[in-house]
Amino acid sequence: MKLFEYRGKELFGKYDIAVPNGRLVKNKNDFSDLHFPFVLKAQVPIGGRGKAGGIKSAENLKDAKEKFSQIMGMDIKGFTVGKVLAEEKVKIKKELYLSITLDRSKKMPLIMASREGGMDIESVSDNKIFKEHVNPLIGVQSFHIRGIVSKLKLEKEEGKEVGKVISKIYKMFREYDCELVEINPLIITKKGHAMALDSKVNINDDALYRHPDIVSENIELTPLEKEAKEKGIAFIQLEGNIGVIANGAGLTMATLDALTHFEGNAGVFLDLGGTDDPEKVKQAFGLMKKAKPKVIFLNLFGGITKCDTVAKGVKAVITQEGIECPVITRIKGCNEDIAKDILKDAGLITASTLQDAAQKSSEMAGGK
Amino acid sequence: MSIFVNNDTKVVVQGATGHQGVFHIGEMLNFGTKVVAGVTPGKAGQNVHSVPIFNDVKDAVTKTKANTSLILVPAKFAKDAVFEALDAGVKTVVVITENIPFHDAMEFVHYAKYKNAVLIGPNCPGIASPGQSKVGILPGEIFLKGNVGVASRSGTLTYEIVNSLSEKGMGQSTCIGLGGDPITGTSFIDSLDAFEKDKDTKAVVLVGEIGGTAEEEAAEHITEYISKPVFAFIAGRTAPSGKRMGHAGAIIARGKGTAESKIKTFKKANVQVAEFPTDIADLIEESV
């Protein structure tokens, strides 16, 4: 789960990492205790907001009111700005990049730092990014920190400041089950102190249960995706018009791929998982209907969960709740023949292979 | 022969008395697995399908000589359960549980390495060597004893592929589910090395998906060390960047982990990549 910048900075506060003086601004008259000049920053869970006009500096009250009105409510890559952070400007001596993320191949936290702070890190060439892996069984040690700091070529006191920030974000990364802690830029102020001008913090969803202080906002999800998440259903909205329901994430992805092969376009990814619980199947179809697909493509492989049990659940939902769009089904595995009869009986179109079903679905949805 | 599990595998099931535990102990026994013990704290003395239940893994291992653990406990207790199994001397641990915080997985994966144990999963369906043993929740009926080794990051998709192999009379030596999480113990490379050594495996199927770089690393490894023919399927060619596609590990992040990159590196390593999951069987038939 991604946190808003200001939420990430609240966590930085807990770890005694310095951030600029500032707070959320509620409306265009809410500037009383802030000192000019300050920066108004749109709070959105996506990068590139500066270029999109989501960050503006304010020199005086008139200026601040005007800029606030411009930012609040603006659209940044599909996200409507609902929160604006005001931060007093700080005199900058150096801008660095610092982050901790997970290296999936090495299965370890990876510290990355660069002298090229304030830029999109993907545009920084690899030889300018310094890296240290930390085995989680030993945690971050002085040698890791020396390894990074020495390459940043800082003055002695600056190096100490940055070293302290590395220890603190490592602690935060582990204690808060983070996927990512990124400070870009981490600045050295004119007075020589390290300060986090931005925050990107991403917390592992599976660990949220042990962090009751983290507000579960799911800011990157659509309303329907949020609803699905609350019901424990893997549901993703995409660009196309075919609603895909399958069991298992890999099979659902393969179904999407098959549609694309026949120039169809999936609009929903819904993974039923290992369930044959009629209530869950009902919820899944309910969500799917709300997404208004042109065609629903149901692709199931029955293993431990028998095909006929799932088919019965699907039939019950369809006969009780009704469905407006055509449903094309392809079902394979344990008891598939019984399942096919049940689905046909419910008025659904049955196909024998994935290819056949994908082609039918794509054609009925009208291609791209 | 087979890899990781065989006739010598003696299984202790952690989380044995719950609904899943009871059901899958039954299914494993039907498959021929030697399930020798179950562990549920506070339930010692009970039996599940005549398998004795113990309070802790150490006791179970001492009394039954179990050498493999199947972890079915809820995510909150999984880290503790894996550490307990490793400290009790179990040499293969199969973690089925999903939604384990990856920081926990990171710890137990490294601890398993320190203990020289094989850790499979988490968030995986387990492993099956047809005719010998199955440790996990894979549906037993789809398997056929034979010479194809399968390693996969997915569950149902693997069943689909295995089923299509079996329908064509191509049996399997071992089918291993590696798990759909960002951090997993046994990798494609570990599986490839084991299949390469296994004299009953004649061809290997890898079922990958978007996210991470495990497939790219496997491809490089194949070029250098693997002589047996390898076939692959990659799910998620049409997945958008930044969205988690059902599996915690199936996400294209910062431009890394695309299906395109995986398919390209596989092809470079002379691995045939199937367009549809069930095409794998045809590809093997044509070339082996």
Quick synopsis:
With 368 residues, chain A is α+β, with helices and mostly antiparallel strands.
Quick tags:
heterodimer; A: 368 residues; alpha+beta; Dna Ligase, domain 1; D-amino Acid Aminotransferase, Chain A, domain 1; Rossmann fold; six-stranded antiparallel beta sheet; six-stranded mixed beta sheet; 10 helices; 33% helix; 27% strand; B: 288 residues; alpha/beta; seven-stranded mixed beta sheet; 9 helices; globular
CATH superfamily of the largest domain in chain A: Succinyl-CoA synthetase domains
Rg of chain B from C-alpha positions? Answer: 18 Å
| The CATH H-level homologous superfamily of the largest domain in chain B | Succinyl-CoA synthetase domains
- What's the number of extended β-strand segments of chain A? 18
**Which fold name corresponds to the CATH topology of the largest domain in chain A?**
Rossmann fold
Walk me through the structure.
The complex is a heterodimer of chains A (368) and B (288). Chain A is 33% helix and 27% strand. Chain A is α+β, with helices and mostly antiparallel strands. Chain A has 3 domains: 21-88, Dna Ligase, domain 1 (2-Layer Sandwich), CATH 3.30.1490.20; 92-210, 2-Layer Sandwich (D-amino Acid Aminotransferase, Chain A, domain 1), CATH 3.30.470.20; 223-364, 3-Layer(aba) Sandwich (Rossmann fold). In chain A, strands 7, 8, 9, 10, 11 and 12 form a 6-stranded antiparallel sheet that branches. Chain A has a 6-stranded mixed sheet with strand order 13-15-14-16-17-18, sandwiched between helices. A 4-stranded antiparallel sheet of chain A has the order 1-6-2-3, covered by helices on one side. In chain A, helix 3 crosses helix 4 and helix 7 (278-290) crosses helix 8 (307-321). Chain A is elongated and about 75 Å long. The two termini of chain A are 32 Å apart. Chain B has 288 residues and is α/β, with parallel strands linked by helices. Helices cover 35% and strands 23% of the residues of chain B. In chain B, helix 6 (188-197) runs parallel beside helix 7 (214-225) and helix 7 (214-225) runs parallel beside helix 8 (259-268). The longest helix of chain B has 13 residues, at 19-31. At the A-B interface, helix 6 and strand 15 of A face helix 4 and helix 5 of B.
